[in-house]
Amino acid sequence: MIKLLTSAILIPLFFTLNSPLLTSAQTVSTAGFSIMATPTASISGGAVAVTWTAPSTHSSQDWIGLFLAGYPSAGNTVVAYKYVPSGTSGILSFTVPNVTTAQNYEFRYFLSNTFTTTATSNVITVSKTGTATPPPSTTPPPPPSSSTSGTSTSYSILASPVTIPPGGLTSVVWRAPSTHTAKDWVGLFLVGKPTAGNNIVTYRYVPSGTSGVLTFTAPNTTVSQTYEFRYLLNDGFTEAARSNAVTVTSSATSSATSPPPPPPSTTPPPPPPPPPATSTGGSCANGAPLAFEGAEGFGRCAQGGRGGRTIDVTNLNNNGPGSLRQCAEVETGPRICRTTVPGIISLGTWDILVRNDYLTIDGSAAPVTLKDGGITVRASHVIIRHLRVRPGPASLQQRGSNANGITLMSRENGTGTTDIIVDHCSVSWGTDDLMAVFYGTDNVTIQDSIMSEGLSCEGCGSRGLLIGNNAKRVSVLRTLNAHNFIRFPNASSGDIDFVNNVDYNGNGSSAQVVPFHSPVHINFVGNYWKDGPSAVPFNLGYKVIRTVGSFAYSPQSGIYVKDNVGRSRWTGTAPETDIIWSDNGGVAVQAVRYPYPQMTTTSALQAYEDVLSRSGAQPRDSVDARVVADVRNGTGAIISSPLQVGGWPSLSGGTP
Length: 656
Prior knowledge:
Blueprint: E1 28-29, E2 34-38, E3 41-43, E4 47-53, E5 63-68, E6 80-83, E7 89-95, E8 103-110, E9 117-120, E10 124-127, E11 156-160, E12 163-164, E13 169-175, E14 185-190, E15 202-205, E16 211-217, E17 225-233, E18 238-242, E19 246-248, E20 309-313, H1 324-330, E21 335-339, E22 343-346, E23 352-354, E24 359-362, E25 368-371, E26 375-377, E27 382-385, E28 388-390, H2 394-399, E29 406-408, E30 418-423, E31 426-428, E32 433-437, E33 442-447, E34 450-452, E35 463-467, E36 473-477, E37 480-482, E38 490-491, E39 494-499, E40 502-504, E41 511-513, E42 520-525, E43 528-530, E44 545-548, E45 558-562, E46 580-583, E47 588-589, H3 604-614, H4 622-633
Parallel strand pairs: 3-10, 12-19, 20-21, 21-24, 22-25, 23-26, 24-27, 25-28, 26-29, 27-30, 28-31, 29-32, 30-33, 31-34, 32-35, 33-36, 34-37, 35-38, 36-39, 37-40, 38-41, 39-42, 40-43, 41-44, 42-45, 44-46, 45-47
Antiparallel strand pairs: 1-9, 2-4, 4-7, 5-6, 5-8, 8-9, 8-10, 11-13, 13-16, 14-15, 14-17, 17-18, 17-19
């Protein structure tokens, strides 16, 4: 989960920095909690070890975050973070950012997915060059000596072979009482990682019977990693058995040992992903086809499940055979998840988590809505089309404030993902950002979609799109953002093409360019901003794009503006820069458009008509139809509950 600002703040105060700078020797802690970082000096991209202590009763949702010293905890200033495992002490290893000038950082210990600080580390200085002292060893503890642990010795699991290459197959022989439930499952974990806390690499449900064999595809890893399988009971995290350790070697040191042959029904592992496309034109590298006809921008070359299995989603269950979660989260190899039954899928407040590459989710045949959760993509070559994601307040109650609609981010081992396109999707009623692109994710397109009515309630925020934490290249094209307080987009890193979008009923500066995590190079071309009833009159004195010059990478960033229409620039005759509020010096305005992939570009007025006519999941449901009517008529409002606008509509129909 992603650590972000948990309450809406008026735009003039959004980036206030008020924390005192700590000296290198200073630490702050609450009784029972402490953290210390070593070494105290590092070079760009170096490793730092954080030694932590906490009471044994601490939450599995406690986390440690890395911040620039002096910056507030909230407000999207987290550089990196990790959850704290169970126990009373341990060591977490972090990779520090790449910097161009020396920067002071510190680590902070927070309670249970909040920004309640219990301990602050000493300050560490990160320099561009120099000699870094290696951190203490963080080698995970060895696996248990017995092949079973937990509640009963009548359960056992054994994995073979014990050494496999990345993407190879391993077989897990399991035994269990005949009375075991259909919701028992076997999951793959890194040795030393706690069972709970979103640490699952992959999993499968255990079929009926007293024994059997499950086949798993090993993760694609660039460094050797040690894993183990755990048998968990009844859709929970009660552990009944644990396997021997399995080592997945790096590509350079892969063992010559071959895995056992897969059963006839097992799909072979996918081929390695092609390199990211870097062409500035509309074609793809190596002659690869576009994701689909009409795909544009950085993510246009996502291959999705092309050439793989087509798996029909035949029910509206949260999991199990025939469910969308089973197809998107559990299955491996190139696959197309095709909805065949219209309706609402309640996710039980937990996102569908995509870890396996080469996936297409196609919701065009039968409209479905995801409720009580969203979808998080931590894989490459993913296409999502004609999907409705409307989490609602249950995600806030169960998961905290960081429940997005669609999240695109790095893999769980920290390596980046690439080639993702979200097309004709509709996202609303989230409690944080409706969409977010994070942590090294590259070659992303969001196009022809609708983001609307992010909830503005206690502990949550009404926010559109966040692009940050070292996101790389992102295109946002022909997309509607309506009835959201801020963030369309909030850009803190990356090369961004923001073209022919429409924003309605924001508050103050809807778009923020805040180069905190890395430089931002952004085009704003042919976009249309329209004020609505929810704007605070005081904030209407601010221009719709705000660039901030006080952030770490502001001097290396740039913004290009052309043919935009909005507050302070309602005609095409006013200076292009009249749409920008340059705060604290702002970000340099560029004279030439950044040369990002070619795409169809129209005037802002034409974009207004195109977006209102064609954006969002098709055919439109009553939520999108109402929101689009609000934009045309100047009606509607920022809401705090879906019940204010009728709640989730029933769905029927099919292909648009």
